[in-house]
Structures are given as structure tokens and as C-alpha cells.
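Q: Hi! First time doing this. I have a protein sequence and I read that you can turn it into a structure. Is that right? Here it is:
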Amino acid sequence: MTSMLMCCRIPRNSLANITYYSLKESITSKKCSRMTAMGNAGKNASDMIDKLTLMFNCIHQDVITKELIEIMSGAAALE
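A: Yes, that's right. Below is the predicted 3D structure, encoded as C-alpha cells:
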């Protein structure tokens, strides 16, 4: 009788273990995918910030250059 109870419990426990480990793997996979996606999003954001900073600096430099040219032209006109 004891061996019969053991035979009935083993498949039930095995099924529970398989289900448990499958759920753990699924959750781990989901978290890993999210981590990868967030890492890529962070890298893309950094790249975008770098590009926008470069664009801002170029435009700012152009404005300063134009102002200096206007000042020098005005000074030359006064002479």
C-alpha cells in the first residue's frame, strides 16, 4: 500500500516541479528581455543626446560667428 501511494505521489510531484520550473524560466526570460530592452533604450537615448548636443553646439557656434562678423563689419564701416 505504501508503494502504491508513492507511485501516485511521484507523478504529481513531478508535474508540480515541472510546472514550477517552467514558470520560473518564463519569468526569468521575461525579466531578461526587459533588461535587454531597457539597456538598448538607454544606449539609444545616450546616442540621441550626443547628436542633439553636437547639433546645438554647431548652431550656437554659427550664431556667435555671425555676431562677430557683424561687429567686425560695423567697426570697419566706422573707419
